Amino acid sequence: MLPEVVFVLGAPGAGKGTQCSFIAKEYDFVHLSAGDLLREERQRPGSEYGEMIEEKIRNGQIVPVEVTCSLIHKAMMNSGKSRFLIDGFPRNKDNLEGWERAMSDKTKLLFILFFECSRDLCTERCLGRGAAGSGRSDDNLESLQKRFNTYLHDTMPIIKHYDRKGLVRKINAEVCPEDVFDCVKKVFREAGLEKRIAN
Ligand code: C5P
Ligand code: MG
Question: Measuring from atom 19 of ligand 1, which residue has the nearest CA?
Fold first, then answer.
């Protein structure tokens, strides 16, 4: 059986990471955040990509897919599991095409979870996260403006592409995390994905 994948998309601050950690707790899915994998690679001593990644992150730009996709692929292999939430990917055409080249026939794409949230609320959340000590070099107003531009110009067309294929499950992410998760559970139920059996 092919590994199964759910892509998780939405503006910066929409709550992708929060919801993925809820899902990973209750369902048999491994949470892989493309942003987290890139931040880890940036920190890895001897990484040849560290500086390039930091520059892209600070400027809200997207890292070339060869780097991101190979980090995702490695994490999938190392997990020994077969169901994955891939959070923050594919973010642009390069990401999408790179995934299709390298991974689409090795995996089964189930659907796209799309967390929809206004720019004002997303900005407020990211600035709050920065003030609370996220330690992220991009949770500041200047980086956020760039991240939003990238989201609108590069990521929205990807969401539209998948929507035309009937794969997008849109969720209102402006309510509290627990209420957002109720909608997520409904999507999973409708897809026939059951909660993990406690053991
Ligand atoms: O998803 P997250 O907000 O953690 O992503 C942070 C940054 O990581 C993005 O703004 C971008 O610079 C980089 N990134 C990327 N390609 C992805 C996901 C994240 O270059 N697919
Ligand atoms: Mg995240």
Answer: 35
